[in-house]
Amino acid sequence: VTDRPHSEIRRGEFDVVVASPPERRRSAFVERVLHRIRRDRILLVLAVPGILLILLFRYVLLLGNVIAFQDFQPFLGIFESSWTGWDNFAILSDPAFLNALRNTVIITLIQVVLVFPAPIVVALLLNSLLSERVKRVVQSILYMPHFLSWVMVVAITQQLLGGTGIINNALRSAELPTWDIIGSQDWFFTLITTQVIWKDTGWATILFLAALSRIDVGLYEAASVDGAGRWRQLWHITLPGLRSIIILLLILRLGEALNVGFEQILLQQPTVGIAASEVLDTYVYNNGIIGGNWGAAAAVGLLKGIVGVVLVLGANKVAHMFGEPGLYESRSSR
Amino acid sequence: MSTTIVRPEAAPALAPRTRRRRRHRVLVGGMPPPSIASRVLKAVMLTVLCAFVVVPFVSVVSTSLADQAQVSQAGGFVLFPENPSFRAYESIFQGGVVTRALVVSLLITVAGTAVSLLCTATLAYALSRPDSFGHKPMLLTVLATLLFAPGIIPMYLVVQQLGLLDSYWSLILPVAVNGFNVIVMRAFFMGLPQRADGGGAHRRSGRDRHPPDGRPPAVEGRVRRDRAVLRGQLLERVLPRPALPERHDDVAVAAGRAHLRHPERDTERPAPDHRAAADRVDPDGDPRDLDRADPDRVPVPAEALRQGRADRRREELNPVPSRKDIRVRIGIDVPPNDSQARLLDAKEVMRRAKMIEDAGLDGIWHGDASYYRGQYTEVDPLQWSLLCAAATEHVEVGLTVLQVPLREPVDLAQRLLTIHALTGGRFTAGVGAGSTFRGAFQAVHVPYDERFAVFNAHMEKIWKLLAGEEVEDATIPPFPGTEGGPRFVLGAWSSPVSLKRAARDYDGWMSSSGLTNIKVMGEGIKRYRDLGGQRAMTTTCRVDLRAPNVALDEDGPFTLLCGPEEAAERPHRIAELGFDDVCLRFVDHRETNADRTAQFTAEGLEQIRSLLPKDTRIPAPGRRATDLGAGQEGDRAAS
C-alpha cells in the first residue's frame, strides 16, 4: 500500500499506517486506478469507438425526447421552441392514433404466436437430420432471404401475388375471378406475417441451433437408457435445453412489441391504405417527420419506448419467478 | 544399463489392450436411425421449405434474364427465361440513376459493415476481460441498450444536430453498434483461453506458443493446458460436446510432477521396439500428442505398425471361447461386513476369498460406491481386490464397477498398474462413469452432468499411461510385461453409445442385472453382440436361495431370489441371453438387509457352485500377464 520500506513500518506504529492522512490514501487509490488504466490501456482504446457510438446514438439521443413536451419548430431547434407541458399527449385520443395502436397490437400478437416459434420448429427439424451435408445445404438456403432488403421482398410479393402477378395471371387465363391479396385490407396481416416468416425464419434458427449443439449428449444417452423414445427426449431434454434461450429471445421480442416492421409496412401502405396498415412507427413517421407534427409524434414515440421497457422488465420478472435467468439477474437474486 | 527382453511366448499376452475398429451402424444422439416414414416426412417438409425460399429467388433471377416480351406477357414473373439475355443488366450498368444507386448502396454496405464490424469487435473484445478497468459500467452501458429502442424522431434530431443529414454517414453511424451483437461477440471472445501467465489479458503474444526456457514449470504446464483447452474448443466447434473442466488438468499436472516422474526412467524403460511403438500409435489421437509421447521413440515403418496391430488382434488377450459350449462364469460379490455389520479385517477378507475359490467359483468382485451415504461402510475396492487375490491362486478378481470420474486419472492408472502386476494378471477392472450418488461428484468437483465426458477423457489418459506414454509430463513406466494394464470392462447401461464403446475400446461390457429388467438386458446384449462385443457380464445379481420358488418375471430384474430348483434354471436363461459372466450378490430376500452375509458360508457357496456343474462353465479368463519372476528371468537371460 505504501512506498515506505519494510523496516520503517516495523519500527513505526501499525496505527500510523492505518490512520494515514486522507490525501495519502486517496493518492494510493488514484495510484491504483492509474495503474489499472495503464495496464488496460489497449483494452480501453479498443472500447472507445463502440462506446462513443452507443452513448451518442442510444443515450444522448434519449434527450431528444424532450420535444414531446414542446411545440417543436425545426428552425428554432430544441432550445428555442416553446414548452407546452402535456399538450402533445392529447394525441392519444386521436382516432388515427387509436387505429394505429390497435393495428400494432394485433400484428404483434399474431407475430409472437406465429413468427416466434417458427425458427424453433425449423431448428429442431434441422437438428434431427442425420446427414451433416444436407443440414448445411438446407441451412444455407433458408438463410438466403435474410439478405434481401424489404424492398426486394415486397417486390417479389407483388410479382407473385399482385394484380398482374403470376397467380392472378394464372387465374385470369383460367377465366376465374382474380384474387387481390396485396391490396386487400383483410389479407394484410396474413401477408406481412408470411413475409416476416419467409425472410427471417432461417436466420433466426442460428441461435437455436447453437443452443441445441450445446446440450450434453450424455443426457440423451441416459434418457435412451431409461427407455425414452425420440419424442420423449425432445420433450424432456431438447426443449428444456432450449428453454433459457427461448425465454431470453421472447423477452427481447416483447421489448420490440410495439415496433412492427416499419420499413416493410411503409412500403406496402400505398397498396393497402392507411386504415389497415397504419402502425405506431408509421404513424410517428407520417405525422412527425412528413406532417411536421414533431411534438406529438415524439410523444407517441416516447410512450412506445416506455411501454417497451416496462414489457421487458415485466417479462424478465416473470422469467425470474419461474426460475429462469432471463435477460439479466438483479443483484439481490444473485 | 540393463536391457529388458520380453520373452517371445509372453509377449503376445503382454501387449496392451486392443482397440478394435469396426464398421458400425450410424447412431445419432445415441439413438438408432429414425424410421423410414419419419425420414420421408422430414424430406418432404424440408423440400417444401426450401422450395418456398428458392422459387421466389429463382424467379427474380429468371425475370432479370428474360426478354421484355416474355416479362410483359407473364406479368413480371418468369420462372424459365425463354431467350435469356443480359440486356436488363447492360442497361443498369450503362450509367445513370440505377448505376449510381447501385454504387452508393454497395459503398454504404461495405463501409457500414466495416465500421460496424470494427467497432463491435473492438468493443466486444474490450468487454471480454472481466477484471479490466471500467469493465462493469461499460458492460452495463451496452446491456441497457437491449432494454429500449431508439425513437425515430430523437434519432432524426441527433443526426440533424450532428450535421449528418444528407450525408452517407447518417446511414452508417447510427446503426454501427448493436448491443446484442456486442454481447454475442463478447461471449465468443470470453470462450477463448485467457493469457497463461495471468498478466494483462490483452497482450496475448507469441510467448504463449513458444514458452522460453527457464519459465517456471507451473507456468509451462498452464500454457500446455491452455493449448489443450483451445484445442478442445476448436474440436467442440466441429463436434459439440461438453468441454472438460480445467481443474482436472491442473490436478494431473501437479500429480504428474509430484509423484510420477520416474527418476531412472531412461534406464528402466524397455528398449523401444516396433511392436511397442505400434501400440502407442493412437489412430484417433492428436498427432502433437505423439510428438511428445516418447522422447526415445524410434521411427517405425508403416509395415511394422500394421504387423504389430495384426499380431495383437490374433493373440487376443481375453480368449472368449466359442459360443456353442458357453454357460456362464459365476462370480461372487463379497460383502464388506460380517453379519453384525462390522468391517472385516484383512485376515477375514482373505479367508472369505479362499472360501470362494475353494468352492470352485470363478471370480471375486467388489463394487464401488464411493462416498455414498450408505448403510454400510464402503471399502476401497482396489485394496479389497488385492487382498482377495493374495489369498487365492487362480480366480479372477475385479471391480463392479469403479467410478472413474471420482478419481484422479494418473493416480488411478498407477494403482491399476500396481494391482495388475501384483495379481499376475488376474485382475479385471470394471469401469464406469458412475451414477450412484450425485453428491459424490460434487464432493470431488466433477460436474455430474459431464461425467461421461470426464470418464472418457480419464480413460484415454489411463490407457496412454498404461501403454507407457507420457501424459502431460507424467509417465508410469510399466513393469516389464505389464504394459497395457489390466482388462478393462465397461460398466454401462445398454445405451448404443456405451455399447459401441464397450465393443470397440474395451475388453467387455458389464451390465447391471439388479437395476434393469430382463427385456432391457436382452436388447442390450443383442446390440452388443451385433456390434462385435466380446465378453459380456452382468453384475449385482441378487441371490438368496432361501426365498420361495417363483418363476422369473421377464419384466423384472434378473435375480436368484428363489429356491434351489428354480435357481438351477435361471443361469441358463442368462446364458441364453448371451452373457458370459454373472456376479452374484448375497442379499436377504425379505429385504431387511439385516442378514446380508448369513449365507456366506462354505455350504452356501457350494450350493451356488452346484447350480452349474463346473465342466459346463467357461474357464477363468486367461492370465493377462506373466508373473514378474518370469520377466526377471528373461531379464537375466538377456544380460
Structural summary, described in words:
The complex is a heterodimer of chains A (334) and B (639). Chain A has helices at 6-11, 14-18, 22-39, 41-59, 77-80, 95-114, 117-127, 132-143, 150-161, 166-173, 188-213, 217-225, 230-255, 262-272, 274-277, 280-290, 294-321, and strands spanning 70-71, 82-83. Chain A is mainly α and 334 residues long. Chain A has a two-stranded antiparallel ribbon. The two termini of chain A are 32 Å apart. Chain B is α/β, with parallel strands linked by helices and 639 residues long. Chain B has 25 helices and 10 strands. Chain B has helices at 11-14, 36-65, 68-74, 87-92, 97-126, 135-144, 152-161, 169-172, 179-191, 217-238, 246-260, 265-268, 274-280, 287-291, 302-314, 346-358, 381-391, 409-422, 438-443, 451-466, 496-505, 518-530, 564-577, 602-609, 628-638; strands at residues 329-333, 363-366, 396-399, 402-403, 427-432, 487-491, 508-512, 535-544, 560-561, 581-586. In chain B, helix 21 (496-505) links the parallel strand 6 (487-491) and strand 7 (508-512). Chains A and B meet through helix 3, helix 4, helix 8, helix 9 and helix 10 of A and helix 2, helix 5, helix 6, helix 7 and helix 9 of B.
Search tags:
heterodimer; A: 334 residues; two-stranded antiparallel sheet; disordered N terminus; disordered C terminus; B: 639 residues; alpha/beta
Which chains make the largest contact?
A: A-B, 90 and 85 residues
Task: Report the span from N to C terminus of chain A.
Answer: 32 Å
Distance between the ends of chain B = 10 Å
Name the structural class of chain B: alpha/beta
Largest sheet of chain B: 8 strands, parallel, barrel
Give a short summary of the structure.
The complex is a heterodimer of chains A (334) and B (639). Chain A has 334 residues and is mostly helical.
Task: Please outline the helices and strands.
The complex is a heterodimer of chains A (334) and B (639).
Chain A: H1 6-11, H2 14-18, H3 22-39, H4 41-59, E1 70-71, H5 77-80, E2 82-83, H6 95-114, H7 117-127, H8 132-143, H9 150-161, H10 166-173, H11 188-213, H12 217-225, H13 230-255, H14 262-272, H15 274-277, H16 280-290, H17 294-321
Antiparallel strand pairs in A: 1-2
Helix pairs in contact in A: 7-11, 8-11, 11-13, 13-17, 16-17
Chain B: H1 11-14, H2 36-65, H3 68-74, H4 87-92, H5 97-126, H6 135-144, H7 152-161, H8 169-172, H9 179-191, H10 217-238, H11 246-260, H12 265-268, H13 274-280, H14 287-291, H15 302-314, E1 329-333, H16 346-358, E2 363-366, H17 381-391, E3 396-399, E4 402-403, H18 409-422, E5 427-432, H19 438-443, H20 451-466, E6 487-491, H21 496-505, E7 508-512, H22 518-530, E8 535-544, E9 560-561, H23 564-577, E10 581-586, H24 602-609, H25 628-638
Parallel strand pairs in B: 1-2, 1-10, 2-3, 3-5, 4-5, 5-6, 6-7, 7-8, 8-9, 8-10
